[in-house]
Amino acid sequence: MDRPNEDDLIDIDPYDDGSFPEFGFNQAPGTPAVLAALRGTGPVPTTGLATRRQLRAMGLSPGGHDPAAVLVWRSGKRKAWLYRIDLAKPKRKPTLAQEAALDKAMASRQTCPVCKRRYHACLPLKTLGSCLECFDGTPADPSTYTAPPTAHQLAA
Ligand SMILES: [Zn+2]
Question: In this structure, which residues have their CB less than 5 angstroms from ion ligand 1?
Fold first, then answer.
């Protein structure tokens, strides 16, 4: 019986595509500086790696660049992409039109269709279909909504 020659065997890790270095918590380059910046106890670092959320919290975005490494925790069950801070760009500011569209979308989720008040929080429109006060009379704190625009009183 032929046995394969040990020298012909190559170790293959089927989960390693060879392109991304992996880091555990606090092992990625620059992590202490990133964490200090997020706590407000240090300046925003200019090198190192950070996750998308960390970049965002520092006022940055990946800037169209692909991740450079992957953060792995819980023995490989959780992963997050790490981006190079030196390639990051300032967070995109939404244009006025984008803000207006966003406000319109939020308004439809925050405005009670019955009393027309706009609340500061989203309403349970799918389940109750109105604000609590219209639904069962639970009085709403006046500081949690803005009054509806007064309807015109002109006779038709
Ligand atoms: Zn209402």
Answer: 112, 114-115, 130-131, 134
63 vs 8: CA distance, rounded Å: 44
Beta strand spans in the chain (E): 22-23, 49-50, 60-61, 69-73, 78-84, 89-90, 118-119, 145-146
Find, among 45, 43, 19, 41, the residue nearest to 31 by Cα: 45
Distance 96 CA to ligand 1 centre (A): 29
What are the structure tokens assigned to 1, written together? Answer: 């019986």
Residue 17 predicted with pLDDT over 70: no
Whole-number Å distance, alpha carbon 108 to ligand 1 midpoint, is 13
Q: Give residue 141 CA to ligand 1 midpoint distance, Å.
A: 12
Cα gap 56→50, rounded to integer Å: 10
pLDDT confidence band for 126 (50 / 70 / 90) = very high
